[in-house]
Amino acid sequence: MLHIGCHLSAAKGFMAMGRQALSISADTFQFFTRNPRGGNAKALDPQDAQRLRELMEGHAFAPVLAHAPYTLNGCSADEAVRSFALRTMQDDLQRMEYLPGNMYNFHPGSHVGQGVERGIEQIAAMLDAMPLQDIATTVLLETMAGKGSEVGGTFEELRAILEAARCGDRLGICLDTCHVYDAGYDIVGDLDGVLARFDAVLGLERLKAIHLNDSKNPFASHKDRHEKIGQGSLGLEALTRIVRHPLLRHLPFYLETPNELDGYAAEIALLREAAAS
Ligand code: FE
Ligand code: FE
Ligand code: ZN
């Protein structure tokens, strides 16, 4: 059974997302913890969180994935931006305690000219300020396309962050199919080879979630623009091999394709059929 969902708007609260997921035959979803461009999160309603937990249990949901705002950059050259990132992640993780057992994904950051090594140190320092031992949420680093000065465009950079952080062994990875293909990992022509590489560098046991996206750009373009499933450079066949792969099919898949709800419903139906056949 394929665990799949899509990115949903959190504007109407947790339960609304749970119901929306059910309405499109999803059994998980992703949401932004706050405005993707940053800013304050709205007040959390513990009863709303509790109702979602019951819905998830009743419908055998896979863990849901909270996504940090894009503006969160723990390796900015600007100390104010770094401390905003730290406070935002702390606050997000505190709020996630109302939904125990789920996951929180963030983009490692952009070193903006400071160099990858400095960036890695700063990201690890931010993670070390999180109570990772004491929370019921698994924090995930996302694989990036390597655009601009992004850190995390290679498996080796992600490993360096995990090694530099004291609580590195508590962290997981979210693999974004558009990002890794744009970064130069050929998951279309050599999926087994890329997974072997992932296993050698990071360990497949670290892989906790997949962002399932097609890409608007060609292989190794370092661009990061998501396309609808089957309409980009990865194509439906390659994406089907991913959801069916014996090393991946147990994982939860989250669509971040450019769609409204009906488009997501159609992609979920398509992928469920492809996975079952
Ligand atoms: Fe992301
Ligand atoms: Fe993503
Ligand atoms: Zn992306």
From TrEMBL:
Enzyme class: hydrolase
GO biological process: one example: base-excision repair
InterPro entries named among the record's database cross-references: AP_endonuc_2, AP_endonuc_F2_Zn_BS, Xyl_isomerase-like_sf, Xyl_isomerase-like_TIM-brl
Essential cofactor(s): Zn(2+)
Binding site residues for Zn(2+) 3: 179, 224, 226
EC number: 3.1.21.2
Function, in words: Endonuclease IV plays a role in DNA repair. It cleaves phosphodiester bonds at apurinic or apyrimidinic (AP) sites, generating a 3'-hydroxyl group and a 5'-terminal sugar phosphate.
PANTHER family, per the entry: APURINIC-APYRIMIDINIC ENDONUCLEASE, ENDONUCLEASE IV ENDODEOXYRIBONUCLEASE IV
Protein name: Probable endonuclease 4
Phylogenetic lineage: Bacteria, Bacillati, Bacillota, Clostridia, Eubacteriales
